[in-house]
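Hey, weird one. I pasted the Ribosomal RNA small subunit methyltransferase G sequence into the form twice and got a warning about non-standard characters only the second time. First submission, copied straight from the form history:
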Amino acid sequence: MADLILDWNTKINLISRNPPPTKDHVLNRHILPSVALLNTNLLPSPLSPTSSIKVADVGTGGGFPGLPLAISCPESDFTLIDSVNKKLVAVKSMADTLGLKNVRVHHGRAEEMKLAPSDRFDLILGRSVSSLPNFCSWVSPLLSPSGKLLYIKGGDLGEETRVEPRARVPISTLAGIPDVSDKDALLFTYDDVKRIAGEFKPK
């Protein structure tokens, strides 16, 4: 997958080009932090290599964390969502090249998606897409009442929300590699997401 990312990154900006990324950079800064989310001993997420759930990666960009997780969890169905179509073209091409039958892409904004209750997601992923209240206001209608939000971000949550995550684990701890990421994995329930969404104040 790292080779595919590097090849596509010469055509469109999937990951930062400054400095020019290497294969080790893609592995250590993007792929490993994504797969680290499967460390359920530290992070009580419903996602595992044997789980069969519906997952949405909102604001997937270059396919992170959705693509590495889809490779690792072939029994779960992944919908990778982004408003930038050219990035989704790259993501879909990489998924096809990797033979991933459990990945589909959706071009558009999450807040504009309409889902029947039976189609809502068991797990929603996001990686520093927006502030938590903003993000939760987008995705709360897409999440199953029994579902979870797994959000990756750093910094002080107190500046964004009064709701404490059910779990907060540094990505470096999950991966077992110091300094692989300066961000944390935050786990919230459906009720938490609704409460955080209620804190969103449109400008």
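That's the output from the first submission. The warning seems to come from a hidden character in my clipboard, not from the data itself. The longest helix spans residues 23-35.
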